[in-house]
Amino acid sequence: METADKIFGLRAWGLYLYGSLAAYLPFFGILDIKSNLIEDVPKLILLSSSLLPVFVIFLLIKARYRIWYLTTDRLFIRALITTLLIIIISSLICGMSLIVRNDYEISFSLAAKYRNGIAEALLMAVICLTVSSTLFIAVLLKTLNLPGLPTQEFIKKQNVIRSNLKFILSSGIKEELLSGEEMKELQKKGKEIEKNMKEIENLSENYFAKKYMSSLLEHVNNFNQVLYEMIAPGSVDKELKWKKYIKQETSSDKNNKKSISVKEIFALKLGK
């Protein structure tokens, strides 16, 4: 399910709802496209005019996913798939409205008339997306707690986690053994990450986000344990432990549980 969340954006399933909501406008007669529009307007003009609003929606979704997910892993493909699925859902809804209005009938024929019907449904879906883009802008710019979307409390805690992880990844500990004070600062950041992850686990909403944090929490705990062993009072062989768990000079060093967790932490794609 974690992979499905990364690909389809399951933790923000509300985007599919809000993105296709405006496609119901034709049912109420608010949005109407002349049935001969597809035949009268050149296909190239229709295609080019449809790309811009779709691209804007894609950028809005991508920007929001950047906030809702800790890493940038599969960000582009997730935003692209979400955009395409919203268009498909909206097209199906608009197609049903054309059938309800008796402009077309259900058929699996590829005759020109029915191809025009598919194109008309697609065009209506793009227009509806343009209308609903104002909702996406509101979701993007305002602090809204909408059903089916990560809450502001979750976003706030995740931002703290991301900021502290960036501090650890940019500390240089992977390249050289840091001083005692620098190690203590890393441990402080690690503890803060652990605290916020546990608080996210206790949130009642968003199963998929909590599931991901739970799997990452184990790696954070192991990383914090490595730091503790290196800076604990009376600790010896700090450099040997750094080489074993952090630098991982030999193949045997890479196979123990703590080293794997350190590797996972430093493999996170947090973006800029």
Order of helices and strands: HHHHHHHHHHH
Q: Main beta sheet, described?
A: none
Please, what is the average pLDDT? 80
Number of strands: 0
Q: Number of helical segments?
A: 11
Proportion of helical residues: 55-70%
Which of globular, elongated, flat, extended, rod-shaped describes the shape? elongated
Provide an overview of this structure.
It is a single chain. This protein folds into two domains: 2-141, no CATH class; 152-266. The protein is an all-alpha fold and 272 residues long. Helices cover 68% and strands 0% of the residues. The longest helix is centred in the middle third of the chain and has 30 residues, at 112-141. The chain has helices at residues 2-8, 14-20, 37-40, 43-68, 75-100, 112-141, 152-169, 180-201, 207-231, 238-247, 257-266.
